[in-house]
Amino acid sequence: MTLKIKFDYRYLLLLGFPVAFLSEALGWSDMVRFVASAIAIVPLAGFIGEATEELAVHTGPKIGGLLNATLGNAAELIITIVAIKEGVLELVIASITGSILGNLLLVLGLSLLLGGLKNGWQKFDSTQATTNATMMILAVAALMVPAVFGSYIDVVNHEALQPLSMMTAVIMIAIYGLGIYFSFTQTDDKSPLTRPAADVHEGKAWPVKKSVAVLTVATIAIVFMSELLVGAVEHVVTQIGWSEFFVGIIIVPLVGNAAEHMVAVQMALKNQMDLSVEIALGSSLQIALFVAPLLIIIAALMGQELAFSFNEFELVALAAAGVVGVFVIKDGRSNWLEGAQLLALYLILGVAFFFL
Q1: pLDDT of res. 3
Q2: Do the domain assignments include residue 299?
Q3: Which residues, other chains included, contact 77 with Cβ-Cβ below 8 Å and sequence gap of 6+?
Q4: Which pLDDT belongs to residue 339?
């Protein structure tokens, strides 16, 4: 009898956890602390995602979809809350943009490219794709309107800028809540705001207690790692010459969402394109309609003045990603070339942001 042992890369990446703590205690360089904490966050985010998927088995598809929608971006939400507490607000705003761009262009692009190379033309629900596309355009518009209007309001009446962002945030969360409610009233369970769970099971599902324990421990661990990561950002950007803006728009979203990104690509390789597209678009919608406005409210409660103050470069990037993403998915069919096109746009934007 042959014994097969499956190696889980996440346990190797968890070595970043003690290294990050040792670097803090022993006074190692900020670069070591930044890299180690970033590496540790990747598997921890994966454990949060897996625990959520396991809980979804016990709760049913609708509650499971809600859990995925709520906790799908937990790692990045924690990082940005820590950044708000530390007053690193430019990183927070940039990470919102970066998450949307990363999901629409990088994740979806990789999924279409690799899935297309392996499986040829791939199909997904065109009706749901159209619904997702419309919702994505509305989500991007909801972020852009207060940013564009706010640039003028900031000049003529700066005091009104924060109330504008707060009121917009409340409306966006209300729409998000209505979308969740709508999904619970539908028999087909195809709301883009309550994503279905990926099939992660090779054996018996975890007990509820184990799922909750893993979710709790991983969340607490990410809080500690986020403290170290954000605390090292200012010194690291000075040391290597990167801007805080570039770290926020490229590095933080990649770290916080790496595990979920891999699931989307794996689903595309398995030719499960409905789920792959739902993960990429659903995560973008969660960031735009729930995480971003929630951060505005949390910042106000913490005494920080955070607004939807995207710069003109971010607005152009969001508009471009939204339009291109919609045209790619609206017909319900994909191929590897469309994936390469999305990746090309992401790389162009990444290079441009690097030189800002």
Answers
A1: 43
A2: yes
A3: 291, 294, 295
A4: 93
